[in-house]
Amino acid sequence: MSILAATLTTKADVVSEEADAPEDEIGSNGLDDFTRRLTEDDARVLVDLLKLAVAGRAGPRAAPAITKVLIGLARENHIVAGMLTELCVTEIEDAASDTEAMRSVPQPVVQESSHPYTDDVTLTGAVKILGAEALRVEFDRQCSTERKHDPLTIMDGAGKIICTRSGREWSDWSTEVRIAGDELRWKFTSDGSVNGWGWRFTVFPLMPCATPRDLHSDRRLLSRPLVDLPMCLLDSLLPLCTQTAILSRLAASLALCAQLSSLAPSQRMWGLKTLRKIVTTDLGSGLNIRALLSASYSSSSTPAPSRPISPVPQSSSVPSVPTSAPQSLAPPAPPSLRGSTESLESSGSFVKPLVEVRTTPEMPLVSLLKGLPEALLRQAEYEDPLVRGGKHLMHSQFFKVLVGLACDLELDNGVGSGEAHKWAWFRRYCVACRVIKSLIERTSLPSGFCSDVRKKLCEMLGEGEVLSLEHEDHNMFLHQHDEQLLLWFNRRPEDWTLSWGGSGSIYGWGHNHRGQLGGVEGAKVKLPTPCDTLTALRPIQLIGGEQTLFAVTADGKVYATGYGAGGRLGIGGVESVSTPTLLESVQHIVIRKVAVNSGGKHCLALTADGDVYSWGEGDDGKLGHGNKR
């Protein structure tokens, strides 16, 4: 019988209530005279105790205390380090293949109309997911019905109306819906007028925090995989791991766990963060991530794309009806499903399919890395309207980890062919991250960034002036100078906004019965009158159409005011507005210039990437969308 088994008989023996031992009795690895005598067999017993501790069976202080001892033993004994690393990898692999846990997690449910939907019908339905404490409803981006005439009503289990959705714009459907309880009902009615693509929504169950393990005995709990165990040990064990084979297994199992809906959001987040640490640092130098990214696998070995299970047959989708929101003139990309929520609850973007065929041990890692661009784009499309609309103050931690991993892998060099406008934000993020890293580490600035800065400086040079590259010299510009610049930027941001000479006021006069002067009062303004709302935007371009006015700011945003008939304002509707209103649908794109003639009912916008967007009345095909609407 080991020393540990013979001496530990109560919880108090595991977690002492007395003060910690004096510092001179504890070594650099956190071990005292007693714990330093523990053997490999004792470490295995400690692992079982740690598993019970993280499951809440041994008091709140037990897990940190046992973890400290195990890590100390690993640092002093390479056999213990190898044993613990192998145990962590095996635990994660077992959790990834735990079919019992997968079956116990309720799956999302899809409800949808026919595409296009039928006129003069009334449809009803219900979704009930047993065990859910709430339901979250996400609508497909293609949703389009006649506003007010063909509404979709969402109700709770008691029949109380939660929301009503209809309209041609994504903004009419983008807001997610949460319903308390495990049941929702819906009702859709359509009249005999114009119809559209229809609607589709996915219902995600929000399960209570309590897990079935609370009901298990200690013996049952020790026999089940528990991701919380490697979460305690692995971060400290990674620097001690030098075997490429076990790192490869670890990376593959972490990639698999990051896609498992049966795991808690915090566990999947930990899996992604740990995977990022492995594949983007010296730890993963032997994994050859570049080869995995470029590897070609047969279609039979590629996991099926994640999609919620639907109770109704999936109909083939058709292009949506043109709307008043700006649309790209480039060919449309195929529709895709959206990602997870702010807290990763019942994520649809990174959820592992129930059936998967693997031909190589690295297949889960390859699947995750190759699916990263699509998952990143889906998540961005999902979170953007929530952040811009003010529902969320910032992007989720899940999204930040995805973006960081993609940036570290330099995926910006291989994405966006044919749909550059969708990836413009990601490329800007990658450039900013690399510039910041260069400034912090005082390494060479990215060549592309330096080239862009030089071009802008050349445009500002006067006659006879010569361009100096001293701004790229880290020996001349030190950290203290960077701090001064940041201080200046934070205290006086207006000094960094490019405008007509950096200052000035905007005056307006003339007809204003549609609010086209952007904040000036009166239907007819006979004298030049200050327009404070436009001045505050500090625009670099002002241009007017038929009873409309557009303002382009230095950061590439477009604002519109005036007459909204025919969608000519591009704000997602036909209502008129009397104050400058942001075009949210192109907010993530940097607009350089807007074009509209003085009597024009449509508008064109040129982006920094050379793409052109158009909106408004489309008579005679003037919008270039391939139709005359």
Features:
alpha+beta, globular, 17 helices, 629 residues, single chain, 4-stranded antiparallel beta sheet, disordered N terminus
Structure description:
- By secondary structure, the chain is of the alpha+beta class.
- 33% of the residues lie in helices and 16% in strands.
- The chain has 17 helices and 18 strands.
- It has helices at residues 3-7, 11-14, 40-54, 62-76, 78-96, 99-104, 218-223, 228-237, 244-257, 265-279, 289-294, 363-388, 397-408, 420-441, 447-460, 479-491, 532-537; strands at 109-112, 121-128, 134-139, 152-156, 161-165, 177-180, 183-190, 200-206, 327-328, 507-511, 524-530, 539-545, 548-553, 558-562, 577-582, 591-595, 602-607, 612-616.
- The strands form 5 sheets. It has a 4-stranded antiparallel sheet with strand order 1-8-3-6, with no helix packed on it.
- Helix 3 runs antiparallel to helix 4 (62-76), helix 9 runs antiparallel to helix 10 (265-279) and helix 9 (244-257) crosses helix 12 (363-388).
- The radius of gyration is 30 Å and the shape is globular.
- The termini are far apart.
- The relative contact order is 0.08.
- Residues 1-9, 13-21, 296-359 and 498-502 have low confidence and may be disordered.
